[in-house]
Design goal:
Layout: E1 25-29, E2 35-38, E3 53-57, E4 60-61, H1 62-69
Antiparallel strand pairs: 1-2, 1-3, 3-4
Length: 78
């Protein structure tokens, strides 16, 4: 079953907060310094795999986005 939220336009099986119409997340890894774009905010560093990443969505910090939209759904987190 798809989790696509037609009302909010969220990605199917996505992170629960990123909308299809949003720009890419700009990520900077705190471990290796790699900068990269991603569609979802729950991605780990594409270079080293570290989850400690600073994220921005269209210049808006991650903390501000989650304050407005709620916490993302993290797959495989425990």
């Amino acid at each position: 079953m798809s989790r696509f939220d037609y009302k909010n336009g969220l990605y199917p099986n996505g992170d629960g907060i990123t909308r299809v119409s949003d720009p890419f997340w700009m990520n900077t890894c705190q471990k290796c310094g790699h900068k990269y774009w991603s569609i979802l905010c729950t991605d780990n560093c594409s270079n080293c795999g570290d989850p400690d990443v600073v994220r921005e969505l269209g210049g808006i910090p991650y903390k501000q986005i989650i304050a407005e939209r709620g916490e993302p759904i993290k797959h495989n987190s425990e």
